[in-house]
Protein backbone atom coordinates (compact mmCIF):
# COMPACT_ATOMS: atom_id res chain seq x y z
CA UNK A 1 0.00 0.00 0.00
CA UNK A 2 -0.76 3.21 -0.67
CA UNK A 3 1.99 2.39 0.84
CA UNK A 4 0.41 5.48 1.78
CA UNK A 5 -2.40 3.43 2.71
CA UNK A 6 -0.24 2.59 3.05
CA UNK A 7 -2.77 3.61 3.04
CA UNK A 8 -1.69 7.36 8.38
CA UNK A 9 -1.34 8.17 11.87
CA UNK A 10 1.60 8.36 14.24
CA UNK A 11 -0.44 9.36 17.22
CA UNK A 12 1.73 7.56 19.73
CA UNK A 13 5.05 9.07 18.67
CA UNK A 14 6.29 12.04 20.65
CA UNK A 15 6.07 15.10 18.39
CA UNK A 16 8.98 16.73 20.17
CA UNK A 17 11.31 13.81 19.39
CA UNK A 18 10.32 13.87 15.73
CA UNK A 19 10.77 17.61 15.56
CA UNK A 20 14.25 17.39 17.06
CA UNK A 21 15.23 14.58 14.70
CA UNK A 22 14.15 16.54 11.66
CA UNK A 23 16.29 19.52 12.62
CA UNK A 24 19.40 17.87 13.99
CA UNK A 25 21.58 18.71 10.96
CA UNK A 26 20.47 22.27 10.29
CA UNK A 27 20.21 25.60 12.02
CA UNK A 28 16.72 26.87 12.84
CA UNK A 29 17.12 29.69 10.34
CA UNK A 30 17.57 27.23 7.47
CA UNK A 31 14.15 25.65 7.99
CA UNK A 32 10.96 26.68 6.22
CA UNK A 33 7.42 25.33 6.41
CA UNK A 34 5.01 25.27 3.48
CA UNK A 35 1.25 25.79 3.73
CA UNK A 36 0.64 22.06 4.25
CA UNK A 37 3.09 21.87 7.13
CA UNK A 38 5.92 20.13 5.23
CA UNK A 39 9.33 21.18 6.55
CA UNK A 40 12.23 22.09 4.29
CA UNK A 41 15.91 22.46 5.17
CA UNK A 42 17.78 24.53 2.58
CA UNK A 43 15.06 23.65 0.04
CA UNK A 44 15.15 19.91 0.82
CA UNK A 45 12.23 17.95 2.15
CA UNK A 46 13.25 16.20 5.36
CA UNK A 47 11.62 12.83 6.08
CA UNK A 48 11.48 11.10 9.44
CA UNK A 49 12.10 7.37 9.74
CA UNK A 50 10.25 6.06 12.75
CA UNK A 51 10.95 2.39 13.36
CA UNK A 52 10.40 0.78 16.74
CA UNK A 53 8.12 3.47 18.09
CA UNK A 54 5.80 3.24 15.12
CA UNK A 55 5.70 -0.54 15.27
CA UNK A 56 4.78 -0.43 18.94
CA UNK A 57 1.88 1.82 17.98
CA UNK A 58 0.65 -0.92 15.67
CA UNK A 59 1.75 0.69 12.41
CA UNK A 60 4.43 -0.31 9.94
CA UNK A 61 5.91 2.38 7.72
CA UNK A 62 8.64 1.44 5.25
CA UNK A 63 10.99 4.17 4.09
CA UNK A 64 13.98 3.36 1.86
CA UNK A 65 16.53 5.23 -0.19
CA UNK A 66 15.01 5.98 -3.59
CA UNK A 67 11.47 5.02 -2.50
CA UNK A 68 10.97 7.20 0.54
CA UNK A 69 7.40 6.17 1.30
CA UNK A 70 5.97 2.69 0.96
CA UNK A 71 4.13 2.16 -2.32
CA UNK A 72 0.96 0.27 -1.41
CA UNK A 73 0.43 -0.13 2.28
CA UNK A 74 0.10 -3.89 2.32
CA UNK A 75 3.50 -5.13 3.49
CA UNK A 76 3.83 -8.85 4.16
CA UNK A 77 2.22 -9.74 7.50
CA UNK A 78 1.63 -6.07 8.37
CA UNK A 79 -1.98 -6.44 9.38
CA UNK A 80 -1.23 -9.44 11.57
CA UNK A 81 1.50 -7.51 13.34
CA UNK A 82 -1.08 -4.94 14.38
CA UNK A 83 -2.61 -7.57 16.65
CA UNK A 84 0.66 -8.85 18.14
CA UNK A 85 3.08 -5.92 18.38
CA UNK A 86 0.99 -3.94 20.83
CA UNK A 87 1.33 -6.75 23.37
CA UNK A 88 5.12 -6.63 23.35
CA UNK A 89 7.22 -4.35 25.53
CA UNK A 90 8.05 -1.08 23.77
CA UNK A 91 11.67 -0.33 23.00
CA UNK A 92 13.15 3.14 22.86
CA UNK A 93 12.08 4.82 19.58
CA UNK A 94 14.88 4.92 17.02
CA UNK A 95 14.74 8.18 15.09
CA UNK A 96 16.77 8.97 12.01
CA UNK A 97 16.52 11.49 9.21
CA UNK A 98 16.74 11.15 5.46
CA UNK A 99 17.20 14.05 3.06
CA UNK A 100 15.19 14.00 -0.16
CA UNK A 101 15.98 16.72 -2.68
CA UNK A 102 12.71 18.07 -4.02
CA UNK A 103 14.39 19.08 -7.27
CA UNK A 104 14.82 15.36 -7.96
CA UNK A 105 11.07 14.67 -7.76
CA UNK A 106 8.57 14.77 -10.58
CA UNK A 107 4.84 14.22 -11.04
CA UNK A 108 3.52 11.57 -13.41
CA UNK A 109 -0.08 10.33 -13.62
CA UNK A 110 -0.80 12.24 -10.37
CA UNK A 111 1.82 10.21 -8.49
CA UNK A 112 5.16 11.49 -7.17
CA UNK A 113 8.38 9.90 -8.41
CA UNK A 114 11.94 10.33 -7.16
CA UNK A 115 15.38 9.70 -8.66
CA UNK A 116 18.79 9.17 -7.11
CA UNK A 117 20.44 9.75 -10.48
CA UNK A 118 20.77 6.10 -11.52
CA UNK A 119 20.89 5.78 -15.29
CA UNK A 120 18.23 3.88 -17.24
CA UNK A 121 17.52 2.71 -20.77
CA UNK A 122 14.39 4.27 -22.23
CA UNK A 123 11.64 2.34 -23.95
CA UNK A 124 8.29 3.67 -25.21
CA UNK A 125 7.44 7.36 -24.73
CA UNK A 126 4.45 7.64 -22.34
CA UNK A 127 4.23 11.32 -21.33
CA UNK A 128 6.11 14.14 -19.67
CA UNK A 129 7.15 15.06 -16.16
CA UNK A 130 5.08 17.48 -14.11
CA UNK A 131 5.64 19.57 -11.00
CA UNK A 132 4.71 17.85 -7.70
CA UNK A 133 2.46 20.20 -5.70
CA UNK A 134 3.91 21.61 -2.46
CA UNK A 135 7.36 20.09 -3.09
CA UNK A 136 9.38 23.07 -4.27
CA UNK A 137 10.68 23.19 -7.83
CA UNK A 138 11.51 20.06 -9.82
CA UNK A 139 14.42 20.07 -12.26
CA UNK A 140 12.53 17.69 -14.55
CA UNK A 141 9.28 19.50 -15.34
CA UNK A 142 8.43 19.09 -19.03
CA UNK A 143 11.00 16.34 -19.64
CA UNK A 144 9.84 13.28 -21.61
CA UNK A 145 8.91 10.18 -19.59
CA UNK A 146 9.46 6.70 -21.01
CA UNK A 147 8.83 3.13 -19.93
CA UNK A 148 12.05 1.44 -18.90
CA UNK A 149 13.21 -0.71 -21.81
CA UNK A 150 11.84 -4.23 -21.55
CA UNK A 151 9.21 -3.27 -18.97
CA UNK A 152 5.47 -2.63 -19.18
CA UNK A 153 4.83 -1.14 -15.74
CA UNK A 154 5.32 2.38 -14.41
CA UNK A 155 6.58 1.51 -10.93
CA UNK A 156 9.90 2.64 -12.42
CA UNK A 157 10.15 4.97 -15.41
CA UNK A 158 12.93 6.60 -17.42
CA UNK A 159 13.18 10.40 -17.76
CA UNK A 160 15.43 12.16 -20.26
CA UNK A 161 17.05 15.51 -19.49
CA UNK A 162 19.93 17.17 -21.36
CA UNK A 163 20.73 13.94 -23.19
CA UNK A 164 20.91 11.85 -19.99
CA UNK A 165 18.30 9.21 -19.15
CA UNK A 166 17.74 8.58 -15.43
CA UNK A 167 15.60 6.13 -13.50
CA UNK A 168 12.65 7.42 -11.43
CA UNK A 169 10.82 5.27 -8.88
CA UNK A 170 7.26 5.72 -7.64
CA UNK A 171 7.55 7.39 -4.24
CA UNK A 172 4.02 8.47 -3.25
CA UNK A 173 0.57 7.63 -4.54
CA UNK A 174 -1.35 10.78 -5.37
CA UNK A 175 -4.60 9.16 -4.23
CA UNK A 176 -6.04 5.76 -3.35
CA UNK A 177 -5.10 3.69 -6.42
CA UNK A 178 -7.90 1.87 -8.22
CA UNK A 179 -7.24 -1.52 -9.78
CA UNK A 180 -6.60 -0.22 -13.28
CA UNK A 181 -3.86 2.07 -11.95
CA UNK A 182 -2.37 -0.73 -9.86
CA UNK A 183 -2.21 -3.05 -12.85
CA UNK A 184 -0.60 -0.36 -15.00
CA UNK A 185 1.98 0.51 -12.32
CA UNK A 186 3.00 -3.11 -11.80
CA UNK A 187 2.95 -3.99 -15.50
CA UNK A 188 0.09 -6.48 -15.27
CA UNK A 189 -1.87 -5.57 -18.37
CA UNK A 190 -3.07 -9.13 -18.99
CA UNK A 191 -2.90 -12.51 -17.28
CA UNK A 192 0.13 -13.29 -19.44
CA UNK A 193 2.06 -10.57 -17.59
CA UNK A 194 1.87 -12.53 -14.31
CA UNK A 195 4.93 -14.65 -13.57
CA UNK A 196 3.60 -16.17 -10.35
CA UNK A 197 1.03 -15.83 -7.58
CA UNK A 198 1.91 -16.79 -4.02
CA UNK A 199 -0.92 -17.32 -1.53
CA UNK A 200 -0.26 -17.50 2.23
CA UNK A 201 -2.77 -18.21 5.01
CA UNK A 202 -3.20 -19.35 8.62
CA UNK A 203 -0.86 -16.79 10.17
CA UNK A 204 0.61 -17.82 13.53
CA UNK A 205 3.20 -15.44 15.03
CA UNK A 206 4.19 -18.05 17.61
CA UNK A 207 5.04 -20.54 14.87
CA UNK A 208 7.04 -18.11 12.74
CA UNK A 209 4.48 -16.83 10.27
CA UNK A 210 2.03 -18.29 7.76
CA UNK A 211 1.47 -22.02 8.17
CA UNK A 212 -0.10 -22.56 4.77
CA UNK A 213 1.23 -21.42 1.38
CA UNK A 214 1.10 -22.28 -2.30
CA UNK A 215 2.74 -20.73 -5.36
CA UNK A 216 1.01 -20.73 -8.75
CA UNK A 217 3.40 -20.40 -11.68
CA UNK A 218 2.97 -19.28 -15.26
CA UNK A 219 2.99 -22.26 -17.59
CA UNK A 220 1.66 -24.79 -15.10
CA UNK A 221 -1.16 -22.83 -13.42
CA UNK A 222 -2.30 -20.54 -16.25
CA UNK A 223 -6.00 -21.29 -15.76
CA UNK A 224 -6.08 -20.26 -12.11
CA UNK A 225 -3.84 -17.23 -12.75
CA UNK A 226 -6.15 -16.06 -15.56
CA UNK A 227 -9.16 -16.59 -13.27
CA UNK A 228 -7.57 -14.40 -10.60
CA UNK A 229 -6.69 -11.70 -13.15
CA UNK A 230 -10.30 -11.50 -14.31
CA UNK A 231 -11.51 -11.30 -10.69
CA UNK A 232 -9.11 -8.49 -9.83
CA UNK A 233 -10.18 -6.52 -12.91
CA UNK A 234 -13.73 -6.41 -11.56
CA UNK A 235 -12.92 -5.31 -8.00
CA UNK A 236 -14.30 -1.96 -6.83
CA UNK A 237 -12.22 0.37 -4.65
CA UNK A 238 -14.05 1.33 -1.44
CA UNK A 239 -11.47 2.69 1.00
CA UNK A 240 -14.06 4.69 2.91
CA UNK A 241 -16.30 1.67 3.43
CA UNK A 242 -13.28 -0.36 4.53
CA UNK A 243 -12.33 2.20 7.17
CA UNK A 244 -15.89 2.58 8.44
CA UNK A 245 -16.40 -1.13 9.09
CA UNK A 246 -12.93 -1.51 10.66
CA UNK A 247 -13.58 1.46 12.95
CA UNK A 248 -16.89 -0.08 14.04
CA UNK A 249 -15.35 -3.49 14.77
CA UNK A 250 -12.34 -1.89 16.48
CA UNK A 251 -14.56 0.09 18.84
CA UNK A 252 -16.58 -3.00 19.71
CA UNK A 253 -13.40 -5.03 20.30
CA UNK A 254 -11.94 -2.36 22.58
CA UNK A 255 -15.15 -1.83 24.54
CA UNK A 256 -15.41 -5.58 25.10
CA UNK A 257 -11.78 -5.70 26.28
CA UNK A 258 -12.46 -2.94 28.82
CA UNK A 259 -15.69 -4.58 29.99
CA UNK A 260 -13.71 -7.74 30.73
CA UNK A 261 -11.73 -5.77 33.32
CA UNK A 262 -8.67 -4.92 31.29
CA UNK A 263 -6.93 -1.57 31.20
CA UNK A 264 -4.18 0.12 29.24
CA UNK A 265 -0.55 -0.73 29.95
CA UNK A 266 0.79 0.77 33.16
CA UNK A 267 3.92 0.23 35.22
CA UNK A 268 3.17 2.71 37.99
CA UNK A 269 3.01 -0.13 40.54
CA UNK A 270 5.80 -2.09 38.94
CA UNK A 271 3.42 -4.69 37.55
CA UNK A 272 3.01 -5.54 33.88
CA UNK A 273 -0.46 -5.26 32.38
CA UNK A 274 -0.65 -6.33 28.71
CA UNK A 275 -1.80 -3.52 26.45
CA UNK A 276 -4.80 -3.80 24.17
CA UNK A 277 -3.83 -6.26 21.44
CA UNK A 278 -5.66 -4.63 18.54
CA UNK A 279 -8.79 -5.22 16.53
CA UNK A 280 -9.96 -8.60 15.28
CA UNK A 281 -11.07 -7.04 11.98
CA UNK A 282 -7.94 -8.24 10.20
CA UNK A 283 -7.82 -11.74 11.68
CA UNK A 284 -7.47 -14.86 9.52
CA UNK A 285 -6.19 -12.87 6.56
CA UNK A 286 -5.06 -14.46 3.30
CA UNK A 287 -1.96 -12.82 1.84
CA UNK A 288 -1.63 -12.73 -1.97
CA UNK A 289 1.61 -11.72 -3.70
CA UNK A 290 1.41 -11.25 -7.47
CA UNK A 291 4.77 -11.12 -9.23
CA UNK A 292 4.79 -9.59 -12.69
CA UNK A 293 7.14 -10.35 -15.56
CA UNK A 294 8.62 -6.92 -14.78
CA UNK A 295 9.94 -8.40 -11.55
CA UNK A 296 7.61 -6.25 -9.41
CA UNK A 297 5.50 -7.68 -6.59
CA UNK A 298 1.97 -6.49 -5.91
CA UNK A 299 0.68 -7.49 -2.44
CA UNK A 300 -2.95 -7.72 -1.36
CA UNK A 301 -4.64 -9.08 1.77
CA UNK A 302 -8.09 -10.65 1.93
CA UNK A 303 -9.83 -10.10 5.29
CA UNK A 304 -12.76 -12.53 5.64
CA UNK A 305 -14.24 -10.84 8.72
CA UNK A 306 -14.80 -7.54 6.90
CA UNK A 307 -15.16 -8.98 3.36
CA UNK A 308 -12.49 -6.76 1.81
CA UNK A 309 -9.32 -7.48 -0.11
CA UNK A 310 -7.07 -4.60 0.90
CA UNK A 311 -9.30 -1.57 0.20
CA UNK A 312 -11.42 -3.31 -2.44
CA UNK A 313 -14.78 -4.96 -1.80
CA UNK A 314 -14.33 -8.73 -1.95
CA UNK A 315 -16.60 -10.70 -4.27
CA UNK A 316 -18.04 -14.21 -4.00
CA UNK A 317 -15.91 -15.22 -6.98
CA UNK A 318 -12.76 -14.08 -5.15
CA UNK A 319 -13.73 -16.19 -2.14
CA UNK A 320 -14.29 -19.18 -4.45
CA UNK A 321 -10.84 -18.66 -6.00
CA UNK A 322 -9.15 -18.47 -2.58
CA UNK A 323 -10.97 -21.62 -1.48
CA UNK A 324 -9.78 -23.41 -4.62
CA UNK A 325 -6.09 -22.77 -3.89
CA UNK A 326 -6.05 -23.03 -0.09
CA UNK A 327 -7.93 -26.32 0.38
How would you describe the oligomerization state of the chains in this entry? single chain
* Overall shape: globular
Average pLDDT number: 77
Order of helices and strands: HEEEHHEEEEEEEHEEHHEEEEH
> Roughly how much helix do the residues carry, as a percent range?
10-25%
Strand order of the largest sheet: 5-6-10-9-8-7
Runs with pLDDT <50, length 5+? 1-93
Main sheet characteristics = 6 strands, antiparallel
Radius of gyration: 22 Å
How many helical elements? Answer: 7
Number of strands: 16
**SSE class:** alpha+beta
Strand content: 25-35%
The N- and C-terminal alpha carbons lie at a distance of: 27 Å
How would you characterize this protein structure?
This protein has 327 residues and is α+β, with helices and mostly antiparallel strands. Helices cover 22% and strands 28% of the residues. The protein contains 7 helices and 16 strands. A 6-stranded antiparallel beta sheet has the order 5-6-10-9-8-7, with no helix packed on it. β13 and β14 form a beta hairpin. The two termini are 27 Å apart.
Amino acid sequence: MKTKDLFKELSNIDDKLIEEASLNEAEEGDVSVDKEGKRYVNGRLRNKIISYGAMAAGLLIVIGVGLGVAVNGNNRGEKNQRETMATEACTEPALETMVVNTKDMMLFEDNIYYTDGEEAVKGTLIGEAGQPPAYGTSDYVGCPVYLVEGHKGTLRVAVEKDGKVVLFRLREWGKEPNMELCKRVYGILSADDIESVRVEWNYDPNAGGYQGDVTLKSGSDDEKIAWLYDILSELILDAEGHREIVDKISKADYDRWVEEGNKAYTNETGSYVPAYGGTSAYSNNVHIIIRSNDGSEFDMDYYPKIAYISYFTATDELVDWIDSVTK
